[in-house]
Design brief:
The protein has about 130 residues and is an alpha+beta fold. It is built from four helices and five strands, in the order βαβββαβαα. About 25% of the residues lie in helices and about 30% in strands. It has a five-stranded antiparallel beta sheet.
């Protein structure tokens, strides 16, 4: 991953991925699933915007609003796998895919301002970090 390293971006990132496949799925199903997932993890105010990922089309990104920061934060990328990826596998129906990064959520919940601190190897510092 080519990424400029700063307080909100690292070269690598932990991510949970999801895939749903069924004959009658569409993009609106994906947005509904993602909205429900984000609500369940405590992020009720969500917005979607167009995104680009080479393996999916259409694609979207989701931001969550965090009132304690008065800021929208990017949380996930998602899309529908392109047919040219699925056809060689014999899959002829829609496949939804998404990836939710944990680092930004951890920063917010722990009150950390710099993502690089999540990889701090000072065990005493880590033990003192509260979860909110």
């Amino acid at each position: 991953r080519r990424e400029r390293i700063d307080y909100q971006h690292l070269a690598e990132f932990p991510q949970a991925e999801g895939i749903v496949m069924a004959p009658d799925l569409n993009f609106r199903h994906m947005l509904g699933y993602l909205k429900q997932i984000l609500i369940e993890i405590g992020i009720p105010k969500i917005r979607f915007r167009p995104g680009y990922f080479p393996y999916t089309e259409p694609s979207a990104e989701a931001d969550g609003y965090f009132p304690e920061l008065d800021e929208w934060i990017e949380l996930l990328g998602a899309g529908m796998f392109r047919p040219e990826l699925l056809n060689p596998l014999g899959i002829d129906h829609p496949v939804l895919a998404w990836g939710i990064g944990f680092s930004r959520l951890a920063m917010i919940r722990m009150g950390i301002e710099d993502m690089r601190d999540l990889h701090n190897n000072d065990i005493d510092w880590l033990r003192k970090q509260p979860l909110r």
